[in-house]
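Example 4.3 (complexes with small molecules)
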Amino acid sequence: MLRLDTRFLPGFPEALSRHAPLLEEARRRLLAKRGEPGSMLGWMDLPEDTETLREVRRYREANPWVEDFVLIGIGGSALGPKALEAAFNESGVRFHYLDHVEPEPTLRLLQTLDPRRTLVNAVSKSGSTAETLAGLAVFLKWLKAHLGEAWRRHLVVTTDPKEGPLRAFAEREGLKAFAIPKEVGGRFSVLSPVGLLPLAFAGTDLDGLLMGARKANETALAPLEASLPLKTALLLHLHRHLPVHVFMVYSERLRHLPSWFVQLHDESLGKADRQGQRVGTTAVPALGPQDQHAQVQLFREGPLDKLLALVIPETPLEDLEIPEVEGLEAASFLFGKSFFQLLKAEAEATYQALAEGGQRVYALYLSQVSPYAVGWLMQHLMWQTAFLGELWGVNAFDQPGVELGKRLTLALLRQEG
Ligand SMILES: O=P(O)(O)OC[C@H]1O[C@H](O)[C@H](O)[C@@H](O)[C@@H]1O
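Answer. The structure with 6-O-phosphono-alpha-D-glucopyranose bound is encoded below.
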Protein backbone atom coordinates (compact mmCIF):
# COMPACT_ATOMS: atom_id res chain seq x y z
CA MET A 1 0.00 0.00 0.00
CA LEU A 2 1.03 3.53 -0.74
CA ARG A 3 -0.84 6.36 0.95
CA LEU A 4 -0.51 10.11 0.53
CA ASP A 5 -0.82 12.31 3.60
CA THR A 6 -1.20 16.08 3.23
CA ARG A 7 -2.36 16.94 6.75
CA PHE A 8 0.03 19.90 6.95
CA LEU A 9 -1.08 21.31 3.61
CA PRO A 10 -4.67 22.10 4.53
CA GLY A 11 -5.64 23.82 1.30
CA PHE A 12 -4.71 20.84 -0.84
CA PRO A 13 -8.15 19.19 -1.36
CA GLU A 14 -9.55 22.49 -2.72
CA ALA A 15 -6.47 23.03 -4.86
CA LEU A 16 -7.02 19.58 -6.31
CA SER A 17 -10.56 20.32 -7.43
CA ARG A 18 -9.53 23.78 -8.68
CA HIS A 19 -6.79 22.27 -10.83
CA ALA A 20 -8.82 19.31 -12.04
CA PRO A 21 -9.04 20.56 -15.65
CA LEU A 22 -5.30 21.24 -15.80
CA LEU A 23 -4.48 17.79 -14.45
CA GLU A 24 -6.96 15.98 -16.66
CA GLU A 25 -5.54 17.80 -19.66
CA ALA A 26 -1.96 16.88 -18.71
CA ARG A 27 -2.99 13.23 -18.37
CA ARG A 28 -4.89 13.30 -21.65
CA ARG A 29 -1.88 14.78 -23.48
CA LEU A 30 0.48 12.22 -21.98
CA LEU A 31 -1.72 9.23 -22.73
CA ALA A 32 -2.37 10.44 -26.27
CA LYS A 33 1.34 9.92 -26.97
CA ARG A 34 1.22 6.32 -25.78
CA GLY A 35 2.22 4.01 -28.59
CA GLU A 36 3.66 6.86 -30.67
CA PRO A 37 7.17 5.95 -31.84
CA GLY A 38 9.77 7.96 -29.95
CA SER A 39 7.41 8.96 -27.13
CA MET A 40 9.45 6.79 -24.73
CA LEU A 41 6.40 5.69 -22.76
CA GLY A 42 7.21 1.98 -22.86
CA TRP A 43 7.85 1.98 -19.09
CA MET A 44 4.08 2.05 -18.59
CA ASP A 45 3.83 -1.45 -20.07
CA LEU A 46 6.77 -3.09 -18.28
CA PRO A 47 4.74 -4.33 -15.28
CA GLU A 48 2.65 -6.46 -17.66
CA ASP A 49 5.59 -8.03 -19.48
CA THR A 50 5.41 -11.61 -18.24
CA GLU A 51 7.45 -12.94 -21.16
CA THR A 52 10.56 -11.03 -20.11
CA LEU A 53 10.00 -12.18 -16.54
CA ARG A 54 10.00 -15.80 -17.72
CA GLU A 55 13.16 -15.28 -19.79
CA VAL A 56 14.95 -13.70 -16.84
CA ARG A 57 13.89 -16.54 -14.52
CA ARG A 58 15.01 -19.20 -16.99
CA TYR A 59 18.42 -17.58 -17.24
CA ARG A 60 18.72 -17.39 -13.47
CA GLU A 61 17.81 -21.06 -13.09
CA ALA A 62 20.33 -22.07 -15.73
CA ASN A 63 23.11 -20.33 -13.77
CA PRO A 64 22.91 -21.56 -10.19
CA TRP A 65 26.70 -21.29 -9.77
CA VAL A 66 26.73 -17.49 -9.42
CA GLU A 67 28.01 -16.20 -6.07
CA ASP A 68 29.13 -12.72 -7.13
CA PHE A 69 27.22 -10.50 -9.53
CA VAL A 70 29.07 -7.52 -11.01
CA LEU A 71 26.79 -4.94 -12.58
CA ILE A 72 28.68 -2.62 -14.91
CA GLY A 73 26.42 0.33 -15.70
CA ILE A 74 25.80 3.90 -14.66
CA GLY A 75 22.86 6.29 -14.13
CA GLY A 76 19.59 4.64 -15.12
CA SER A 77 21.45 1.41 -15.81
CA ALA A 78 22.54 1.02 -12.18
CA LEU A 79 20.55 3.18 -9.75
CA GLY A 80 17.29 1.20 -9.89
CA PRO A 81 18.76 -2.29 -9.43
CA LYS A 82 21.08 -0.94 -6.74
CA ALA A 83 18.15 0.55 -4.80
CA LEU A 84 16.04 -2.61 -4.99
CA GLU A 85 18.80 -5.14 -4.47
CA ALA A 86 19.95 -3.34 -1.31
CA ALA A 87 16.41 -3.71 0.04
CA PHE A 88 15.44 -7.16 -1.17
CA ASN A 89 18.46 -9.40 -1.54
CA GLU A 90 17.19 -12.73 -0.22
CA SER A 91 19.67 -15.01 -1.97
CA GLY A 92 23.00 -14.10 -0.46
CA VAL A 93 24.52 -13.54 -3.93
CA ARG A 94 26.98 -10.69 -3.45
CA PHE A 95 26.47 -7.66 -5.65
CA HIS A 96 29.12 -5.23 -6.84
CA TYR A 97 28.41 -2.11 -8.85
CA LEU A 98 30.91 -0.67 -11.26
CA ASP A 99 29.17 2.67 -11.70
CA HIS A 100 32.40 4.63 -11.55
CA VAL A 101 35.86 4.63 -13.07
CA GLU A 102 37.99 4.94 -10.01
CA PRO A 103 40.90 2.56 -10.48
CA GLU A 104 41.66 1.63 -6.86
CA PRO A 105 38.28 0.12 -5.86
CA THR A 106 38.06 -1.61 -9.24
CA LEU A 107 41.48 -3.22 -8.77
CA ARG A 108 40.52 -4.26 -5.25
CA LEU A 109 37.30 -5.81 -6.53
CA LEU A 110 39.16 -7.78 -9.19
CA GLN A 111 41.56 -9.08 -6.54
CA THR A 112 38.80 -10.34 -4.28
CA LEU A 113 36.50 -11.98 -6.84
CA ASP A 114 36.64 -15.62 -7.90
CA PRO A 115 36.10 -15.50 -11.67
CA ARG A 116 34.64 -19.05 -11.71
CA ARG A 117 31.79 -17.89 -9.47
CA THR A 118 31.33 -14.41 -10.93
CA LEU A 119 28.72 -13.24 -13.42
CA VAL A 120 29.34 -9.89 -15.09
CA ASN A 121 26.33 -7.96 -16.38
CA ALA A 122 27.14 -5.04 -18.69
CA VAL A 123 24.12 -2.75 -18.80
CA SER A 124 23.69 0.20 -21.16
CA LYS A 125 20.70 1.36 -23.17
CA SER A 126 22.80 3.29 -25.66
CA GLY A 127 25.61 0.76 -25.54
CA SER A 128 28.08 3.60 -25.84
CA THR A 129 28.53 5.03 -22.34
CA ALA A 130 32.24 5.60 -21.69
CA GLU A 131 32.34 4.45 -18.06
CA THR A 132 30.44 1.26 -18.86
CA LEU A 133 32.55 0.36 -21.88
CA ALA A 134 35.74 1.03 -19.91
CA GLY A 135 34.55 -1.29 -17.12
CA LEU A 136 33.47 -3.94 -19.60
CA ALA A 137 36.87 -3.88 -21.31
CA VAL A 138 38.67 -4.41 -18.00
CA PHE A 139 36.38 -7.23 -16.86
CA LEU A 140 36.47 -8.92 -20.25
CA LYS A 141 40.25 -9.09 -20.14
CA TRP A 142 40.09 -10.46 -16.60
CA LEU A 143 37.51 -13.13 -17.49
CA LYS A 144 39.45 -14.23 -20.55
CA ALA A 145 42.72 -14.37 -18.61
CA HIS A 146 41.22 -16.61 -15.92
CA LEU A 147 38.66 -18.68 -17.76
CA GLY A 148 39.86 -18.96 -21.36
CA GLU A 149 37.05 -19.91 -23.72
CA ALA A 150 34.61 -20.36 -20.82
CA TRP A 151 34.43 -16.56 -20.35
CA ARG A 152 31.25 -16.28 -22.43
CA ARG A 153 29.14 -17.93 -19.73
CA HIS A 154 30.26 -15.26 -17.31
CA LEU A 155 29.20 -12.21 -19.25
CA VAL A 156 25.62 -11.20 -19.95
CA VAL A 157 24.60 -8.00 -21.66
CA THR A 158 21.51 -5.82 -21.19
CA THR A 159 21.07 -3.24 -23.94
CA ASP A 160 18.96 -1.90 -26.80
CA PRO A 161 17.12 -4.65 -28.71
CA LYS A 162 18.87 -3.85 -31.98
CA GLU A 163 21.14 -0.85 -31.92
CA GLY A 164 24.36 0.31 -30.31
CA PRO A 165 27.89 -1.00 -29.90
CA LEU A 166 27.03 -3.30 -27.00
CA ARG A 167 24.31 -5.10 -28.98
CA ALA A 168 26.71 -5.50 -31.90
CA PHE A 169 29.41 -6.85 -29.57
CA ALA A 170 27.01 -9.35 -27.98
CA GLU A 171 25.98 -10.59 -31.42
CA ARG A 172 29.53 -10.87 -32.67
CA GLU A 173 30.55 -12.91 -29.62
CA GLY A 174 27.34 -14.94 -29.33
CA LEU A 175 26.63 -13.66 -25.81
CA LYS A 176 23.37 -13.89 -23.98
CA ALA A 177 21.79 -10.43 -24.28
CA PHE A 178 18.62 -9.08 -22.73
CA ALA A 179 16.73 -6.24 -24.37
CA ILE A 180 15.77 -2.87 -22.92
CA PRO A 181 12.70 -2.06 -25.03
CA LYS A 182 13.32 0.72 -27.53
CA GLU A 183 10.65 2.92 -25.95
CA VAL A 184 12.12 2.70 -22.45
CA GLY A 185 14.76 5.24 -21.37
CA GLY A 186 17.45 4.46 -18.80
CA ARG A 187 15.94 6.20 -15.77
CA PHE A 188 12.57 4.55 -16.47
CA SER A 189 14.06 1.08 -17.00
CA VAL A 190 14.17 -0.48 -13.53
CA LEU A 191 11.33 -2.93 -14.32
CA SER A 192 12.92 -4.02 -17.61
CA PRO A 193 15.76 -6.61 -17.57
CA VAL A 194 17.96 -3.76 -16.25
CA GLY A 195 16.42 -4.42 -12.83
CA LEU A 196 14.74 -7.79 -13.25
CA LEU A 197 17.88 -9.73 -14.16
CA PRO A 198 20.00 -8.72 -11.15
CA LEU A 199 16.95 -8.98 -8.89
CA ALA A 200 16.29 -12.54 -10.08
CA PHE A 201 19.82 -13.37 -8.89
CA ALA A 202 19.07 -11.54 -5.63
CA GLY A 203 16.05 -13.80 -5.09
CA THR A 204 13.70 -10.81 -4.91
CA ASP A 205 9.96 -11.39 -5.12
CA LEU A 206 9.54 -10.15 -8.69
CA ASP A 207 5.84 -11.00 -8.84
CA GLY A 208 5.24 -8.75 -5.85
CA LEU A 209 7.35 -5.97 -7.34
CA LEU A 210 5.49 -6.01 -10.65
CA MET A 211 2.12 -6.36 -8.97
CA GLY A 212 2.88 -3.19 -7.01
CA ALA A 213 3.86 -1.40 -10.21
CA ARG A 214 0.58 -2.49 -11.82
CA LYS A 215 -1.22 -0.94 -8.89
CA ALA A 216 0.58 2.35 -9.59
CA ASN A 217 -0.58 2.14 -13.22
CA GLU A 218 -4.11 1.61 -12.02
CA THR A 219 -4.00 4.68 -9.76
CA ALA A 220 -2.39 6.78 -12.51
CA LEU A 221 -5.41 6.13 -14.73
CA ALA A 222 -8.02 6.36 -11.95
CA PRO A 223 -10.44 9.28 -11.48
CA LEU A 224 -8.66 12.31 -10.09
CA GLU A 225 -9.64 11.80 -6.42
CA ALA A 226 -8.05 8.33 -6.56
CA SER A 227 -5.13 9.22 -8.80
CA LEU A 228 -2.15 9.31 -6.49
CA PRO A 229 0.42 10.30 -9.15
CA LEU A 230 -1.71 13.20 -10.38
CA LYS A 231 -2.03 14.36 -6.79
CA THR A 232 1.66 14.30 -6.01
CA ALA A 233 2.41 15.85 -9.41
CA LEU A 234 0.08 18.69 -8.43
CA LEU A 235 1.88 19.08 -5.10
CA LEU A 236 5.16 19.52 -6.93
CA HIS A 237 3.54 21.77 -9.51
CA LEU A 238 1.98 24.07 -6.91
CA HIS A 239 5.36 24.39 -5.20
CA ARG A 240 7.47 24.80 -8.33
CA HIS A 241 8.56 28.25 -7.12
CA LEU A 242 10.46 26.48 -4.31
CA PRO A 243 13.77 25.48 -5.84
CA VAL A 244 14.46 22.44 -3.64
CA HIS A 245 12.55 19.18 -3.43
CA VAL A 246 13.77 16.99 -0.58
CA PHE A 247 13.09 13.27 -0.92
CA MET A 248 13.63 11.75 2.52
CA VAL A 249 13.20 8.05 3.15
CA TYR A 250 12.87 6.49 6.59
CA SER A 251 14.34 3.11 5.75
CA GLU A 252 17.89 1.85 5.83
CA ARG A 253 16.97 -0.86 3.33
CA LEU A 254 15.83 1.85 0.93
CA ARG A 255 19.00 3.91 1.41
CA HIS A 256 19.76 3.99 -2.32
CA LEU A 257 16.22 4.90 -3.37
CA PRO A 258 16.74 8.68 -3.02
CA SER A 259 19.63 8.58 -5.54
CA TRP A 260 17.41 6.76 -8.03
CA PHE A 261 14.73 9.40 -7.51
CA VAL A 262 17.23 12.24 -7.92
CA GLN A 263 18.15 11.06 -11.42
CA LEU A 264 14.52 10.45 -12.34
CA HIS A 265 13.41 13.89 -11.20
CA ASP A 266 16.39 16.08 -12.05
CA GLU A 267 17.31 14.63 -15.41
CA SER A 268 13.70 14.40 -16.57
CA LEU A 269 12.52 17.83 -15.51
CA GLY A 270 15.54 20.14 -15.28
CA LYS A 271 15.77 21.64 -18.74
CA ALA A 272 14.53 24.33 -21.07
CA ASP A 273 10.79 24.29 -21.70
CA ARG A 274 9.23 24.81 -25.12
CA GLN A 275 9.59 28.60 -24.74
CA GLY A 276 13.26 28.28 -23.88
CA GLN A 277 12.72 29.04 -20.17
CA ARG A 278 14.85 27.09 -17.71
CA VAL A 279 12.59 24.99 -15.47
CA GLY A 280 13.02 22.32 -12.84
CA THR A 281 13.48 21.88 -9.12
CA THR A 282 16.49 20.32 -7.47
CA ALA A 283 15.84 17.00 -5.77
CA VAL A 284 17.89 16.53 -2.63
CA PRO A 285 18.30 12.99 -1.28
CA ALA A 286 17.89 12.42 2.45
CA LEU A 287 17.67 9.44 4.77
CA GLY A 288 15.97 9.08 8.12
CA PRO A 289 16.97 8.97 10.86
CA GLN A 290 20.59 9.64 9.80
CA ASP A 291 19.83 13.03 8.27
CA GLN A 292 18.04 14.17 11.41
CA HIS A 293 21.60 14.44 12.67
CA ALA A 294 22.88 16.13 9.54
CA GLN A 295 20.46 17.92 7.22
CA VAL A 296 17.29 18.38 9.27
CA GLN A 297 18.61 21.44 11.11
CA LEU A 298 18.78 23.22 7.75
CA PHE A 299 15.46 21.76 6.61
CA ARG A 300 13.79 23.07 9.75
CA GLU A 301 15.34 26.48 10.23
CA GLY A 302 17.11 27.27 6.98
CA PRO A 303 15.52 29.03 4.01
CA LEU A 304 11.86 28.29 3.28
CA ASP A 305 12.80 27.21 -0.24
CA LYS A 306 11.82 23.57 -0.06
CA LEU A 307 9.05 21.10 -0.67
CA LEU A 308 9.76 17.98 1.34
CA ALA A 309 8.42 14.48 0.72
CA LEU A 310 8.87 11.99 3.54
CA VAL A 311 8.57 8.29 2.72
CA ILE A 312 7.59 6.50 5.93
CA PRO A 313 6.96 2.76 6.45
CA GLU A 314 3.89 2.02 8.58
CA THR A 315 4.73 -1.45 9.82
CA PRO A 316 7.92 -3.51 10.12
CA LEU A 317 8.33 -7.05 8.77
CA GLU A 318 10.19 -7.93 11.95
CA ASP A 319 10.90 -5.86 15.01
CA LEU A 320 13.61 -5.64 17.62
CA GLU A 321 12.98 -4.83 21.27
CA ILE A 322 15.26 -2.44 23.11
CA PRO A 323 16.21 -4.24 26.32
CA GLU A 324 16.65 -2.60 29.68
CA VAL A 325 20.21 -1.81 30.75
CA GLU A 326 21.06 -1.36 34.41
CA GLY A 327 23.10 1.76 35.04
CA LEU A 328 21.84 3.42 31.85
CA GLU A 329 18.71 5.00 33.33
CA ALA A 330 19.11 7.98 31.00
CA ALA A 331 17.82 5.68 28.27
CA SER A 332 14.92 4.28 30.31
CA PHE A 333 12.41 5.95 27.98
CA LEU A 334 13.63 3.49 25.34
CA PHE A 335 13.49 0.29 27.38
CA GLY A 336 10.73 -2.06 26.36
CA LYS A 337 10.09 -0.06 23.19
CA SER A 338 11.14 -1.39 19.80
CA PHE A 339 13.47 -0.17 17.05
CA PHE A 340 10.49 0.33 14.78
CA GLN A 341 8.61 2.31 17.41
CA LEU A 342 11.60 4.60 17.69
CA LEU A 343 11.96 4.89 13.91
CA LYS A 344 8.26 5.71 13.51
CA ALA A 345 8.29 8.22 16.36
CA GLU A 346 11.30 9.95 14.83
CA ALA A 347 9.69 10.11 11.41
CA GLU A 348 6.44 11.50 12.79
CA ALA A 349 8.28 14.00 14.99
CA THR A 350 10.37 15.22 12.05
CA TYR A 351 7.25 15.50 9.87
CA GLN A 352 5.54 17.63 12.49
CA ALA A 353 8.64 19.69 13.32
CA LEU A 354 9.23 20.53 9.67
CA ALA A 355 5.63 21.63 9.22
CA GLU A 356 5.76 23.71 12.38
CA GLY A 357 9.01 25.23 11.14
CA GLY A 358 7.07 26.62 8.20
CA GLN A 359 8.29 24.16 5.55
CA ARG A 360 5.97 22.67 2.99
CA VAL A 361 5.93 18.94 3.65
CA TYR A 362 3.87 15.86 2.87
CA ALA A 363 4.24 12.16 3.54
CA LEU A 364 4.00 9.02 1.46
CA TYR A 365 3.23 6.12 3.78
CA LEU A 366 4.38 2.66 2.71
CA SER A 367 2.43 -0.16 4.35
CA GLN A 368 5.75 -2.03 4.59
CA VAL A 369 9.15 -2.05 2.98
CA SER A 370 8.06 -4.89 0.67
CA PRO A 371 8.67 -5.47 -3.05
CA TYR A 372 4.97 -4.80 -3.62
CA ALA A 373 4.92 -1.42 -1.87
CA VAL A 374 8.27 -0.31 -3.29
CA GLY A 375 7.33 -1.46 -6.82
CA TRP A 376 4.23 0.66 -6.42
CA LEU A 377 6.22 3.63 -5.13
CA MET A 378 8.80 3.55 -7.95
CA GLN A 379 6.24 3.25 -10.73
CA HIS A 380 4.20 5.95 -8.97
CA LEU A 381 7.21 8.28 -9.08
CA MET A 382 7.69 7.58 -12.79
CA TRP A 383 4.08 8.60 -13.42
CA GLN A 384 4.54 11.68 -11.25
CA THR A 385 7.57 12.66 -13.33
CA ALA A 386 5.79 12.07 -16.62
CA PHE A 387 2.80 14.16 -15.50
CA LEU A 388 5.13 16.94 -14.38
CA GLY A 389 6.76 16.91 -17.79
CA GLU A 390 3.36 17.75 -19.27
CA LEU A 391 2.61 20.37 -16.62
CA TRP A 392 5.97 22.07 -17.06
CA GLY A 393 6.07 21.82 -20.84
CA VAL A 394 9.27 19.81 -21.05
CA ASN A 395 10.16 16.51 -22.64
CA ALA A 396 10.69 14.35 -19.56
CA PHE A 397 12.36 11.64 -21.62
CA ASP A 398 15.44 13.28 -23.09
CA GLN A 399 18.65 14.65 -21.55
CA PRO A 400 20.24 17.04 -24.03
CA GLY A 401 22.25 18.73 -21.27
CA VAL A 402 24.25 15.59 -20.55
CA GLU A 403 25.52 15.27 -24.10
CA LEU A 404 27.92 18.24 -23.96
CA GLY A 405 29.82 16.72 -21.01
CA LYS A 406 30.18 13.48 -22.98
CA ARG A 407 31.53 15.29 -26.03
CA LEU A 408 34.03 17.27 -23.95
CA THR A 409 35.28 14.11 -22.21
CA LEU A 410 35.89 12.53 -25.59
CA ALA A 411 37.72 15.63 -26.84
CA LEU A 412 39.97 15.66 -23.75
CA LEU A 413 40.84 11.99 -24.12
CA ARG A 414 41.68 12.53 -27.79
CA GLN A 415 43.96 15.46 -26.95
CA GLU A 416 45.85 13.28 -24.47
CA GLY A 417 46.44 10.77 -27.26
O1 LIG B 1 22.23 3.12 -20.18
P1 LIG B 1 23.22 4.03 -20.80
O2 LIG B 1 22.92 4.31 -22.24
O3 LIG B 1 24.63 3.53 -20.62
O4 LIG B 1 23.13 5.41 -20.08
C1 LIG B 1 23.56 5.67 -18.76
C2 LIG B 1 23.24 7.10 -18.42
O5 LIG B 1 23.93 7.90 -19.38
C3 LIG B 1 23.69 9.30 -19.42
O6 LIG B 1 24.30 9.93 -18.34
C4 LIG B 1 22.23 9.64 -19.44
O7 LIG B 1 22.08 11.02 -19.24
C5 LIG B 1 21.47 8.86 -18.38
O8 LIG B 1 20.09 9.09 -18.53
C6 LIG B 1 21.73 7.38 -18.49
O9 LIG B 1 21.04 6.69 -17.50
